[in-house]
Design brief:
The chain contains ten helices and no strands. It is mainly α. It has one domain (about 15-265). It is found in: Cell membrane. This is Probable membrane transporter protein.
Length: about 270
């Protein structure tokens, strides 16, 4: 385990550091548009010598929270999302993300990956076969039912983000579009607010336990911030149709990545 005073992992070369920072830039951009930045950022951190999976996840959260905060502020200024839904979701997601992070060191990612692959197939197919979904906001529920569904979405995805993380933003966007009835742009704007809370909830657990490499996380966060600002501005300029297309691309990439991981893990014992 690291200590809270650790800055950079031992043996991290300048070339590896540059690649991690570039991954953070790309991840911030992708995450701001539709979520899924962890698809780029977390695997890059897992390649850093001497960094355990839990330390990579914790350092990833530090970098991500700076990016998601930037994109959330940018969306708020340009789209003005309804905070009456987003803030309660964020509060509950923060709590469940903390709970998820507390067991992240106990459960291997292989436990979750097959389930996530199936979910991604369903999400991608549903979005592709229903081209009209998410074009305009048409809320499916009202009053307490609306907020109840939103609370369940925030709680479940918040827990997932604390445990594993990649694809959290995409899952949030899809849930808000399909279950709540928001258009893709409004859903993405709210997802960033909730994602800030999930990152914070995980960090509340990871930081006192000394899992975060602060120097690496802050460098990653600076790159993530630049990418997030550019991505959020592009998404708000291009609108829901662009976000929907980006969503399908990210879901497909995430599916291929996690599907490959599951396949490799399945054949490894036989090799």
């Amino acid at each position: 385990m690291t200590t809270s005073l650790d800055v950079l992992p031992e043996g991290l070369s300048p070339t590896a550091l540059l690649l991690v920072v570039l991954a953070g830039l790309v991840a911030g951009f992708v995450d701001a548009v539709v979520g899924g930045g962890g698809l780029v950022q977390l695997p890059a951190l897992l390649l850093v010598p001497g960094l355990s999976p839990v330390e990579a996840l914790a350092t990833n959260k530090l970098g991500s929270i700076l990016g998601t905060t930037t994109s959330a502020v940018t969306y708020h200024r340009r789209v003005h999302p309804d905070l009456r839904t987003a803030l309660p979701m964020a509060g509950l997601a923060l709590v469940t993300s903390f709970l998820g992070a507390s067991i992240a060191a106990l459960l291997p990612a292989s436990v979750f990956k097959p389930v996530i692959v199936v979910a991604l197939v369903a999400i991608g197919a549903f979005t592709l076969l229903r081209p009209s979904i998410g074009q305009v906001t048409a809320l499916r529920h009202a009053g307490r039912r609306h907020h109840g569904v939103a609370a369940v979405v925030g709680a479940v995805i918040g827990f997932y983000d604390g445990v594993l993380g990649p694809g959290t933003g995409s899952f949030l966007v899809f849930a808000m579009v399909s279950l709540l009835g928001y258009d893709f742009l409004a859903a993405s704007a709210k997802a960033k607010i909730v994602n800030c809370a999930t990152n914070l909830g995980a960090l509340v657990f990871f930081v006192p336990h000394g899992y975060v490499f602060w120097g690496l996380g802050l460098l990653l966060g600076a790159a993530n911030t630049v990418g997030a600002y550019l991505g959020a501005r592009l998404a708000t300029t291009r609108g829901s149709r662009f976000v929907r297309i980006a969503f399908l691309v990210v879901v497909t990439a995430l599916l291929l990545r996690l599907g490959w991981d599951v396949w490799v893990e399945d054949i490894r014992p036989a090799s």
